[in-house]
Every structure is written in C-alpha cells, then in structure tokens.
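Q: Here's a chain of 279 amino acids. Please give me its 3D structure as tokens.
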Amino acid sequence: MPSFRTLRTKFIAENPQILAEDVDFVLAERQNLTPSQYRLQLDQDLPKEQLTQIKKDLNKLHKGMSPQYIVGHAWFLGYSIDVHPGVLIPRFETEELVTWALDYLKDNSKVLDLGTGSGAITVALAKKAECKNINNIVYYASDITDSALRQSEENFLKFNLNDIITRKADALIGLEKFDLIISNPPYIKNSEKDLMDQNVIKNEPEEALFAGADGLDFYRRFVKQVPKHLNKDGHFFLEFGFSQKDLLAELFAKELPEFTIEFKNDLAGKPRMVHGRWK
C-alpha cells in the first residue's frame, strides 16, 4: 500500500493548480490527525479501507470541490464547524473579528450574528463567552437563506447551544434591537469575480460573497437600518475588504454621525474590521 507521502507527491505533481495545503488538509482531516500527527505519519503505509476513501476525496479535490466541503467541516477558533456546498466556509480573518467583539461582550447582552451562514461566529462567541464566564447572553442568528439557517442550526445542536434563536431576515429588516451586532457580510466587487479562486465561485453562495459594483451594497443598507436596531451603548462589528476602508469611513461619517467609528487592521497589517458604537 502507498504512503501518505507517495499519494501526496503524485497528486500534487498531476494537479499543480491545487494548493498543497488543501491536499494536506483533506489527507489529515479525513484521518482525524492533527498537523503534527499527519507529518509524523507521512511515510506510513495506508490500510486498504483508508486508501479507498482518500482516493475518492482526492478525486473530488481534482474536480474543484473545496477541501472543507469534502471532509464536511472547517476549523474556526478551534471549533470544528460543519459545512456543506452552498454555505460560506468560515474564514480565518473572521476569527479576529470575533476576538475583537468578545472584548465588548457583557453579561445579560442580546447579540445578533447577522448573516450567520454556518453559524461559526455564534458558536465561537458562545463557547468563548462561556470560557470567560460571561453569562446570560441571548444569541440570535439570522440569514437570508433557508439552507444557511439549517446548517447553522445543525452546528448549534452539535455544540449543545440549544437556546440560539434563528431568524430568516434580509439585513436587519424585521429584527429586534440588540446590544451587539456582528457580521461578516458580502463585500466583494462584482467585477472581481473573474479574479477569484474558481473553487470559491463554483462552491460558495454568491449572495454571501458579492455586493455590487463597489462591494458596499450591504453597508449602505446597514447604516440606514442599524440606529433602529442597536440599543443605547450598543456596538456593531463588521468585516470588510482591505481596499474599502476610505469609502466606508466616508459612508459612516455621513450616515452615522452619532456613532464613534473605529477601524482595525488584521494580523497581516491590512484594514479589515470596523467597530461602531453610540457616542
């Protein structure tokens, strides 16, 4: 039987368009191996039953399926979040947004994960809040699609978060007031579609990715709606594209003069997050 290394080397040589890290993710996750365990076992022969499954996985990778969809989950702040095609795969960058929002989460808060998708943000917020002994939080998770809400509910049950309130909603329309609103909304320009990874285009929902000619369609709606949906002393946290800070700063200054706006760079040094709160 071939080893992990033999299969990996052969597949990467035959499929140079596929990232080696995607191959490693599929091979390790299918076997429930940590990265270090995977490296230690690279030269071990694979049992026949494992080889059959791995070949099926690599064939799906060859056909353009995202690695997280192949194994059925993605990692987000240390939590294994179930995902399926049609639901946005959680991004590492969004982990930084959640970590920032956690600094402002207080006991007895009412929280909205706007555009929840897989539910990753709510899961991470809720579990991390437990670890920090932040109590009596009421969580809402909203999305515009039924498939996303179903996936999020499955993840909430997986992590024993049985009290999450889900709502089908378009932006903030029809929702209540909250103490904290957090969202990784669509912000990619329509014109950038041809520049993106084709696996993303093929597998992930367009409504969770694209937001008009300049990528700001969501934010224009949000700034009109958020004053009616954020309690006094409330906060909002949003992710955006690294080239959109100046346009967003202008939009927020014009539409939300009663809010204090703070931008933050990601770990790569690029502006990617914004925090707004009542003055």
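Q: Can you summarize the key feature?
A: The two ends are 66 Å apart (CA to CA).
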